[in-house]
Amino acid sequence: MWPVAAAFSFIMKKEETDNLIIDLHPEGSCSGKRHEVHKREIIRPKINYYLAIIFFISHFLIGFLISFLIGLIFLENAIVAISFSFKWFWLFAIGLFLLSSRFTLIFIVRLYQRYADEEIRQRCYMIPSCSEYAILAFKKYGSIIGIVKTIKRLKRCTEPGYEDYP
Questions:
Q1: Above 80 in pLDDT, residue 134?
Q2: Where are the alpha helices (DSSP H) in 77-142?
Q3: Hey, how many other C-beta atoms are within 10 angstroms of the C-beta on 3?
Q4: Which of 25, 37, 92, 104 has the CA that lies 20 to 30 A from 65?
């Protein structure tokens, strides 16, 4: 079978062979099947680390302010409210992270897109790629349903050229 692939790539023009991968035995398929998959353009998103740090720190500051205000309202003493807020601000910070987890998950997927090896990123047969699908699912459905849809998509990511949008 390999000589067939070599002859096929020899006959094609140089520009066309750069964009075509011939997988004779992709993982998960019967041996002997021939799949022609076009190389997808790897998009490496730019990541704004300053914005991510500000996003992370702001959750802790807002959590501290919320716990301080709750302490002031219920305890009516500023010193006791400050000690209350130091004790319980993490609870409000985690709550804020859970409320904005969609953005955190999108940031994690973008980190994967930025730093994952090109060979790993080229393995996805479907359109859009699984990482692009995950971002679309998080934007459309939120974090919990987006995670479920992304996991289901990763389980069925074997058919070449199949289009599947969330």
A1: yes
A2: 78-99, 101-115, 118-121, 130-141
A3: 7
A4: 104
